[in-house]
Amino acid sequence: MSTEVVTRFAPSPTGFLHIGGARTALFNWLYARGRGGKFLLRIEDTDRERSTPEATAAILAGMEWLGLDYDGEAVSQAAGAERHRAVALELLEAGKAYKCFSTQEEIQAFRDAAKAEGRSTLFQSPWRDADPATHPDAPYVVRLKAPREGATVIRDEVQGDVTIRNDQLDDLVLLRSDGSPVYMLAVVVDDHDMGVTHVIRGDDHLNNAARQMAIIEAMGWPVPTYAHIPLIHGPDGKKLSKRHGALGVEEYRDMGYPAAGMRNYLTRLGWSHGDDEFFTDAQAREWFDLKGIGKSPARLDFKKLENICGQHIAAADDAALLHEVTSFRAATGQEPLSEAKNALLLAAMPVLKERAKTLPELLEKAHFCLADRPLEVEPKAAKNLTTESRGILSDLTPQLQNATWERLELEGLLNSFAEERGLKFGQLAGPMRAALAGRAATPSVFDMMMVLGRDEVIARLTDAGSGDGA
C-alpha cells in the first residue's frame, strides 16, 4: 500500500517571500498536487527577535498571488516548543542524548588547543559518557549522542548519494541551557509529526540533513525522501542579490508579471521536461518530478521570463485576465475601474493580449478604451492632427453615422474613403489613432472602432475635428 505524498514549505518570517523560496514552495506544491498528496505550510518562527507578523503576512500574500494553496492551517514552529523539548528529554531518558556542562570558555579553549596541535576543532564533550553522579549543579545543554564511527549517507533525489563521515559531525545541541529547543531539532520533530514524506528544499540545507538524520534515527523514525535543489543565481552566475534586480515575489507582482507566467517560468528554472518551455498548470502538475531537477544553479533571465509571461497573457481566458488586471491595479494602489470601463476592457482583451508581456504593457495598449473625453493627445500623435487632417476626419464622421458597424463593412468604408481622397490608408490611420486614442502607437484602427462602438468613435472624431482635446 503506497503512502500518501506529503510535502511542506517552511519559510522563516524575517522578510519578504524571496524568489528562491517561492520556487521551493512551487516545487513542493507541484510534487504533492501532481500525486494527489498534501502540501503543508510551516512558518519557522523560532527566531523570535527577527520573526515578524508583517513578514508572515508577506509570505502568505506572495503564496496567494502565485496560487500556491496549502492544506489545512499554517503551522507555527514556535508554538510546538513543548513538543520539541519533550522529544529531547525522551532522547536524554533513553541514553541517546546527554547533559553537557561545558562552558563557552571551555569549548573555545578546546578548539584553540586542537587548532594549535593540528587536530580537528570539532568539539568533543567530556560529559558524553560521564557518570551522572559527577554532574555539577550548574547550567547545561542537552546534546545528541551522534554516531562517531562509520558514515551517514544522504540518499538525495537531486544530488545523488552524499556521504559524510560521522567523525565530521559534532554532538548536536538539542536544548539550550535555558531549556529552549534548537531549530535543527524543531525541524525534524515537525516534519515527523506533520507526516512529511518528501523534504524538497534548497541545497544550502544539504549539510543539515546528515545532522537531522542522526536525530531521526535516534528516535527510530522513518527518514523522509530528500531532494536538495540548487539555488537561483543572477545572469552573471553569482548568488542572486539586489544588484540583479527584484528579489521578492511581491516585486514581480507589482511589475505586472502574470501569476501563471511566473509559475511556468519558476518551474522551468532548474527543472526540465524535454524541450518544453511553455506549459499549463495542469501539464506542470502532471510532468513535474524530482529527476528532472538539474544539479547546477539556475540563472534568472528576465527576457525569458517576459517571453513566457507574454505567452501566458496571450493564452489566458479574457475574464480571468480582467480579474488579474483588477488585482494588479489594487495591489499597486491604482483606482478601481468603473463597470463601464471594465466592460470595455473585457471587450478589448482579444486585441490587447497579443504581444503584451506584462500587465502594464497590456494596460498601456488599453489606453484607448480607458481614457475619458476629451482625450489628451500626446505630442507625437498631435503631429498627425493638422488642419487638413482635422477636415478629413470631419468629412468622414457623417459617413460613419450611417455605416453598418461590422468590421468588414468598416474596412471597406475607410479604404474607399481614403482612395477617394487620394490618400494611402496609413495617411488616414495616423489622424484616426490620434483621435481615437490620443496616441501614435495603438491597436489597429478597426480594433479600436469595434471595441469603442459607433457613438464613442463619432464623439472622439468630432472632438478631433473641432480641435477639442488636441
Task: Please give a structural write-up.
By secondary structure, the chain is mainly α. The chain is 47% helix and 10% strand. It has 20 helices and twelve strands. The protein has helices at residues 19-33, 53-66, 81-93, 104-116, 183-193, 206-219, 249-254, 259-268, 281-287, 302-315, 318-331, 339-352, 359-365, 367-370, 379-382, 387-401, 407-420, 425-437, 445-452, 454-466, and strands spanning 6-9, 38-43, 75-76, 97-100, 141-144, 151-156, 160-165, 173-175, 198-202, 225-229, 232-233, 298-299. The strands form five sheets. Strands 1-2-3 form a three-stranded parallel beta sheet. A three-stranded antiparallel beta sheet has the order 4-5-8, covered by helices on one side. A hairpin with a 3-residue loop joins β6 and β7. The longest helix is centred in the first third of the chain and has 15 residues, at 19-33. The mean pLDDT is 95.
